[in-house]
Amino acid sequence: MCIRDRIKKALVKAEQQQSQQAQRQMQLDEITKQVMQSTQMLQIAQAREKLTQAEENRATAALDRAKAAAEIQDIGAQRALDLINLMFEAQQRIEDRNLQREQAMQAGGAQ
Questions:
Q1: Close Cβ partners of 102 (under 8 Å, ≥ 6 residues apart)
Q2: pLDDT tens per residue across span 30-65
Q3: Per the count of CB atoms within 10 A, which of 9, 39, 43, 94 is most buried?
């Protein structure tokens, strides 16, 4: 086999390898794009879930306050103070639970 044939063969092989590398790079780019889109969709879903939970908590708190207000009208002053304290404690527990959920979500997202 002459040098010219060897060079041609080497060039053909190099072009094939370069073409294969380009195909692998395109596949990698596509996979990277899909991962980024999936990550964005997950972040949006998590934000929506967090918003829904916050709205639910506000609605629950408003309902609890309305129930408490109705009960306060029917009970004595000391009982009213006890109930108000109970409401504040319940609200604090809700806020603590929400904070724990938020921290858990952030810890899960950081991994």
A1: 50
A2: 999 999 999 999 999 999 999 899 899 888 888 888
A3: 94
Do the beta carbons of residue 99 and residue 53 sit within 8 Å? no
Alpha carbon 60 to its chain's center = 23
Rounded Cα–Cα distance for residues 94 and 82 (Å)? 18
Contacts by 7-13, CB closer than 8 A, 24 or more apart:
none
Answer whether residue 77 shows pLDDT above 70.
no
Higher-confidence position of 82 and 92: 92
The helix, strand and coil proportions of the chain, stated in percent and rounded to the nearest 5, come to: 95, 0, 5
